[in-house]
Amino acid sequence: MGCPGAGKGTQSAKLQDTFHLKHISTGDVLRAEIASGSDLGKRIAGIIDKGNLVPDELMISMLENIVKATDKGIIFDGFPRTVAQAEALDAMMKRLERSITAVIMIDLPESEVVNRIASRRQCGKCGAILHITPGTPANKCPVCGGELYTRPDDTPERVKHRLEVYHTDTLPVKTYYQRSGSYVEINGDQTPEKVFEDIVNVLKKVK
Ligand code: AMP
User: Fold this and answer.
1) Over the stretch 108-142, which tens digit does the pLDDT of each residue have?
2) Ligand 1 within 6 A of CB of 5
3) pLDDT over threshold 70, residue 207
């Protein structure tokens, strides 16, 4: 968990590579549906580009098939984002005889969010997330050579709205997991390497 720009995608990718887990970013799942050009994708684009959340039922139904298709341990990145999604995830885990190991919140001061997102670029080919000097035009991905792009929901106005949505809809999820005892907070205002080290230390304790 974490607000926009907290580093969820970056840390999830590192965890996937290090521990051979399956990284499921619901944002990436939705962007892939948009890229497919389907009618559903067009509907989703209208929601995401405004910085709003995709309806819970749609998100959950899209996710269940992906979860069922893997036996690996899973990192959910950007899910659950509402209490209804957290409840649906609990029900899904029970049905699939799986359990939640830890809920990790990457905590970042809001003053940092806008700066970070202004410099964020994503690779359209491999999905790598990079930070470049603000004002620099999108260029080639250093990982795979793919085209880098700025996400349409990363403009300052959209980010402001996404933060409001985060406060209203997603922060209650924190209280939900605090009650279950599986919730841990990490300081996200550190280098990616240090954040990763802190996450690994949490995982060592709960394993
Ligand atoms: P992200 O890549 O995690 O920043 O997500 C980008 C956008 O996708 C969000 O601002 C939402 O519009 C949508 N989205 C991602 N995950 C979810 C989710 N779990 N529930 C609803 N909408 C989501």
Assistant:
1) 998 899 888 988 898 989 988 888 876 666 688 98
2) no
3) no
Q: Is 30 in the pocket of ligand 1 (CB under 6 A)?
A: yes
DSSP H helices in 36-170: 39-48, 56-68, 83-95, 110-118, 156-165
Q: Containing H/E element for 184?
A: strand 183-187
CA of 25 to the centre of ligand 1 (A): 9
- Residue 86 and residue 60: Cα distance in Å, rounded? 10
Is 95 one of the catalytic residues?
A: no
| pTM across the whole model | 0.89
On whether residue 184 sits in a domain, the answer given is yes
162 catalytic? Reply is: yes
pLDDT (average), residues 158-164: 92
DSSP state at residue 137: P
The answer to whether position 1 is within a domain reads: no
Residue 41 maps to which CATH number?
Answer: 3.40.50.300
Report pLDDT digits (tens) over 41-73.
Answer: 999 999 999 999 999 999 999 999 999 999 999
CB-CB contact of 60 with 92 (8 Å): yes
Cα-to-centroid distance, 48 and ligand 1 (Å): 7
Total of domains in the chain: 1
Residue 20 falls inside a structural domain: yes
Domain containing residue 107: 8-120+151-206
Mean of all residue pLDDT scores within the chain: 93
Asked if residue 101 belongs to a domain, the reply is yes
151 is an active site residue:
yes
